[in-house]
Amino acid sequence: MSDYLKTRALMARGSEFLGSEWAILCGAMSWVSERNLVSAISNAGGFGVIACGAMTPDLLDAEITGTKALTGKPFGVNLITMHPQLFDLIEICGKHKVGHVVLAGGIPPKGSVEAIKKSGAKVICFAPTLALGKKLLRSGADALVIEGMEAGGHIGPVSTSVLAQEILPELAADKLVFVAGGIGNGAMIAAYLEMGACGVQLGTRFACASESIAHPDFKKAFFRASARDAVTSVQVDARLPVIPVRALKNKGTDEFTAKQIEVARLLDAGKIEMGEAQLQIEHFWAGALRRAVIDGDVENGSMMAGQSVGMVSAEEPVAEIFATLLGECEAALAQRRAA
Question: Which of 26, 207, 287, 339 has its CA 20 to 30 A from that of 42?
Answer without folding.
Answer: 287
